[in-house]
Amino acid sequence: MSRIRLLDPLTANQIAAGEVVERPASVIKELLENSLDAGAQSVYLKIENGGKDKIIVTDDGFGMNADDMCLAFQRHATSKITTAEDLSQITTLGFRGEALASIAAVSRVHASSRQREDAAGTELKIEAGSVLSTKPSGCSEGTSIEISDLFFNAPARRKFLFNASRETAAISEIVNRLALSHPSVRFTYYSGPRLLLQTPGKGRLREVVASVYGLDLAEKLLEINYLKHDVELSGFLSPPQIHKATTSNIVFFINGRYIKDSILLNTIKEVYNSKIPGGRFPVAILNISIKPGSVDVNVHPQKLTVKFDRPEYINSVILAAVEDCLSRPDTDTWFIPQIGNDGAKQFLPNVEYHEPQHQVAWREVVQERSMDAPVEDPSIDVPKPEEAPANDLPMPLEESPAIKNDIPAAKTTNINASRSGAGIPIMRIVGQFKAGYILAEAEDGLYIIDQHGAHERILYDKYSQGTQLGHSQLTVPQTVDFSADEAEYLVEYIFLLQEFGFILEHFGGNSFILRGMPRFLNTSDGVNLLQDIVQLLASGTKVNQQDLEKELLLQLSCKGAIKEGQYLDKAEMEILIRQLAKTSYPLSCPHGRPIVIKLSIADLKKLFLRQE
Ligand code: ADP
Ligand code: MG
């Protein structure tokens, strides 16, 4: 007897379902793509319990007749191609004819559909791949497919699904992408009673961007339109002043199909590389239109990657288009402060350009003077910040601040036991260099201290001990919009964020009201930080509470710390260094960058070729 046998269709479909139907989001991707392929102008989606209990997709597309309805749920049944040659000219999102069969094999389906020209429609019920009933139906034009109890007959698969909010977030990401690539279609998306997305369907991409990402961002994005021979590029790019914590806002569509492409992603990152801070990423929504024949879409089970005929060419066109867009004269006009027409302000000293939050953050450190200094050394007359003369405080060597003695290669000369800790070289502030570095001398050499890193370390230690974290109430509460998937995470983590000082309230849909934020942050920094954190959560990179806490502390200390460009007087520098000396690790900032660099006397002698 032969050992090999052909699998029955149901088993074959269940196996296929393993490739196509991974989770509720993949079911929704297939159903929505079918609606779009059916020429729908309006698509309605509703999910319950992250799509695990119910998914309903209703469209106003061209529908199916009774025969097609039965065929549609069979494997390799498609109206989109006839022969293998057609594969090279695909203009639809689907073409393999296996999605509905795969979905039906692992769920309960209730479908109804009517073609415009037909008097009546058809209703069909399927359970685990077996048709339970078909009957005529008075349904409206278009198609409605309801999927219940996904994986009810595949418990091992169901067990591996995430909680409802995480599944909802994955679904939202899919819906957002499809909405962005189809601005002419009106998308309505509910999770239970919550409306998560509504796009106008008027064909204007900026309006869709506003629905997905919020109006604030949509207004600031730069439009890109570029045509080179047979490649057309359209969409939006962020100006360099807007950057995000992850690459999740860089999306590519090829002929209306969302794809992942690491080469194109790298190209975008490279163009922005020198324009935005390290570790930050732009927003880019790019629609690429090319001849269907010059791209192979049949190379990935979920059709998430494609193969270009001429990848280098496409890449070079995109590079040119993005560079062109970013070098347009209007690119950076919206953020330039109003400086009048004479441009005279350009020559004013730096101090004119300090942002208010630096001062606020700094005051915190300076205020400690009144707590620290008199107790530690009543003999030093340290004036309050307002009274502090801009320069030259009395700074006797013995009373100067100290740095811990574990500076690499530093041979500590323990002159006295300073109150800031034993074995610390006494230092005297020499001055500030380029409003960013403190120069200090000790017995054994010259020390250069990065003022931002030092303050960052001080704040990080303070916050991690749970002290000083608090919030300040906003006088004018801010409405902050998120994308649907981000909003999902925000709801999940709202209490944790509250512990860190973000007082948030769910306003409805994807909008939240921010009533308070961590102290030291000004409103725009606070909103940006919140957006970054939520994006990190949504990207799945920071999921456990510990990671999130660390990230929050890092961000809070970085945002709260004085920046380069902030002038400090000697007393301020003194306090900064004294506080730094008390931290857990004064030599590097919480990101791991060095804070203190030492040039020993021997180093200097060597440099001046004066070695004895
Ligand atoms: P594919 O999309 O690859 O053709 P599917 O299994 O997703 O395969 O769908 C099978 C067929 O069912 C489609 O080719 C299409 O003819 C029909 N169909 C599915 N969904 C719809 C819909 N919403 N409106 C009209 N026809 C549909
Ligand atoms: Mg399909």
Description of the structure:
With 612 residues, the protein is of the alpha+beta class. It folds into four domains: 9-202, Heat Shock Protein 90, CATH 3.30.565.10; 221-326, Ribosomal Protein S5, domain 2; 346-463 and 563-607, formyl-coa transferase, domain 3; 470-557, 2-Layer Sandwich (Ribosomal Protein S8, Chain: A, domain 1). Helices cover 34% and strands 22% of the residues. The strands form five sheets. An eight-stranded mixed sheet has the order 5-4-3-6-2-1-7-8, with helices on one face. A five-stranded mixed sheet has the order 9-10-13-11-12. A hairpin with a 2-residue loop joins strand 7 (186-191) and strand 8. Helix 6 packs across helix 13, helix 12 (451-464) packs across helix 15 (545-560) and helix 14 runs antiparallel to helix 15 (545-560). The longest helix is centred in the middle third of the chain and has 21 residues, at 356-376. It starts with 8 loop residues before the first helix and ends in a 5-residue tail after the last helix. Residues 30, 34-35, 38, 59, 61-64, 72, 77-80, 94-101, 143 line the site of adenosine-5'-diphosphate.
